[in-house]
Amino acid sequence: MTAPLFVFVHGWGFGPDLWDGVRAHLSRGDSAAVDLGYFGPPVVPALPAGRPVVAVGHSFGVLWLLHEAPFAWDGLIAINGFPRFTEGPGYAPATPRRVLDRMIARFDAAPTAVLDEFRRRCGCGAPAAPCDAERLAVDLRALRDWDARPALRAPLRALAGRGDPIVPPAMTERAFAGLPLNWHAEGGHLLPQTASAWCAERIAAWAAELETTR
Q: Cβ–Cβ contacts within 10 Å for residue 4, how many?
């Protein structure tokens, strides 16, 4: 059977290099990465026809995939992800909207400081490259406002960390209620970096399962 094409999408405040470790551990199938343009030009790669596609999103990258649907996929893997980030009527626990309101107000005044603080909360240092504050601001509002739950559907797998400070376990369980969840017992919000082999193993295993159903 044709090997899958893995298409990776990073989250808010990061770039496609987030996936370097995961992509290095994938022994079968080609891969491509979307760049949302926070530290360089945005890129959505053109995908070849006739290949099975497995989309892999991290954090906001999952919400972006579901909301924007930039290409068709045969399966979606959500890592530290969600179809909606903020609380709303009938949707809790999640991040209170007021937290994003404050973050947006601060970002408009001091974007670099807010970005650095967010990355530290995720467990990562400041980025090496200057940021595109305008693109980050647009997607920060999307993080607050988008609700892509109507697009959430199988086939989907979610990988999450029990120690995630951004998307805690209760929020993950609410977001993906009724869908398969794979937990990393000690993992935080940056599983693609801190547990790249673990992520790659599960991505590859599920892609193999998908192949058998095609």
A: 26
Those residues whose C-beta lies under 8 Å from the C-beta of residue 25, and which sit 6 or more positions away, are 196, 197, 199, 200, 201
Polymer length of the chain: 214
For the whole model, what pTM was predicted?
Answer: 0.97
Q: In angstroms, rounded to a whole number, what is the distance separating the alpha carbons of residues 187 and 90?
A: 28
Q: How would residue 1 be classed by pLDDT, with cut points 50, 70 and 90?
A: low
Look up residue 165 and give its DSSP letter. S
For the chain, what are the domain ranges? Answer: 5-84+147-213
H/E stretch holding 98 reads helix 97-109
Quick: pLDDT tens for 113-151: 999 999 999 999 888 889 999 999 999 999 999 999 999
For the domain bounded by 5-84+147-213, which CATH number is listed?
3.40.50.1820
